[in-house]
Amino acid sequence: MIVLALLAQLSAFILLAFSLRRGVLLLASGWPPSLNRPIPASPAVLILIPCRNESESLPGLFDSLDALDYPREQMQVVVVDDGSTDRTASLAQTWCAARPWARLISLPQSVGKPQALNEALTLFPPSPVEHFQPTSGMGGEVVVIYDSDHRPAPNSLRALVAPFADPRLAGVSGQMRVVNGHASPAAFYTMLESHVHQFITMRAKDRLTLAPALLGSNCAYRLSALRAVGGFTSGALVEDSDLTLAFALQGWRTRFAADSLSEHHAPVTLRGYLKQHLRWNRGFHQVAGKRLPALWASPQLSFLLKLELTFFSLGYADRLALFAGAFFTLVDFLHPGTFGFPRFVWLIYFGLPMLEMLAALLIARAPFQMYLRLAYVPFFFALDLAIAVWANLETLTRQPFKWSATERTRPPETTRP
Question: Does the global pTM surpass 0.85?
Fold first, then answer.
């Protein structure tokens, strides 16, 4: 019984720790952003587009790339066809043929997004930026990633590369805006998660210099930093999150560029939502198992950065503490005083996320109808709990990691000036 009582207090402590992090990030998200130093010229960029069976989405992305406000002589686009079985390669070849700054790589069989990107970097390394002086801070090449379902705004690329004036910077993530949050409850909840993650968590971590996470699209990397960490990890389910920790371990910084906007659509079905979130859960298990021991053994990282990256890589681990706390609370209700689980924990644990959601919707200038859809939150939170349990069971029983493609609906409309 003493052991269970200690476990009750431990679960309360874990829930409060996650809540304290939420509170700090919520406050810090309102701080003024740091200013980027001006870049003397537009750096040469290599834009990689990994795709597999994306014939429905690619035309819209191509329209967005054509509309980018960026010098074509400083821009090279490489479409990486990862063993597609539809018209992806032929569509890409037709588009590239009319543009001297675009190329197509067709891999004979699918190797997954991370390895496909590595293949492209081997065959098409970025051109040297000869007109930059070493003191400019750019120091070389910038690699940009766009998924085929994204629609970057015309000025997004300039905003994305601006932070690279800092020579300590390894990677930048721009804003990824879900535009079909009205389409279904699943799309709304995915949009809400994205708003909270970017407008609260990422903004705050950028202001606090706590390694804001790299995202899988509308993101940019310094090639020398990529090479220093061995490139993209082949087989990684969340290669962007893996790189976030890899860069930190090498002493590099990451940034969030909120002014770089790219639109995309979220899955609209429950099946699509389940597959996406299960992949994210399993992916974070990969990252935690691979990176956390080295993270805490590193003498060069601050305690606060180690702590924040631990919270980040554990992902949805607080759900397990929630189950334990719910059990102890139920026993205390049936048999008062058995474990003494502090009930005020629940007010803090559920209250702060609600404040985050309201703040994120306000920042996004969401219409009033979106606030009414907050009624979906309890259902999807319960679904997230079930997914977390499912993912943990798969990891504990050593089920193989399986990558699954994100559900695609109709192609998003192209963003125009």
Answer: yes
Using CA atoms, how far apart are residues 50 and 147, in angstroms rounded to an integer?
Answer: 6
pLDDT digits (tens, 9 = 90+) for 22-71: 999 999 998 887 655 555 567 889 999 999 999 999 999 999 999 999 99
Residue 360 contacts residue 192 (beta carbons within 8 Å): yes
- Flag whether pLDDT at 138 surpasses 80: no
Structure-block tokens of residue 166: 């800092």
Contact 26, 352 (CB under 8 A): yes
Phi and psi torsions of 326, nearest 5°? -65, -40
Instruction: Provide CB contacts within 8 A for 203, sequence distance 6+.
Output: 28, 29, 33, 256, 258
- All structural domains of the chain, each given as residue ranges with its CATH number in brackets, are 45-187+211-268 (3.90.550.10)
d(CA 79, CA 105): 6
Alpha-carbon distance of 407 to 267, in angstroms, equals 5
- Helix or strand run (H / E) with residue 334: helix 318-334
Cβ density class 71-102: b for 16+ within 10 Å, e for less:
eeebbbbbbbbbbbeeebbebbeebbeeeeeb
Tokens 């139920």, residue located: 330
pLDDT the model gives residue 39: 53
Residues 6+ apart with CB under 8 A from 354: none
Q: Within a 13 Å sphere around the CA of 302, how many CA atoms are in the beta-carbon half?
A: 8
> What rounded mean pLDDT belongs to the chain?
89
Residue 319 has pLDDT above 90, yes or no: no
Confirm if 87 and 56 have CB atoms less than 8 A apart. no
* 343 alpha-carbon distance from chain centroid: 33
- 3-state class percentages of the chain: helix first, strand second, coil last, to nearest 5: 55, 15, 35
Q: Distance (Å, rounded) from C-alpha 373 to C-alpha 352?
A: 18
- Categorize the per-residue pLDDT at 411 as very low, low, confident or very high, splitting at 50, 70 and 90: very low
Q: How far apart are alpha carbons 15 and 10 in whole angstroms?
A: 9
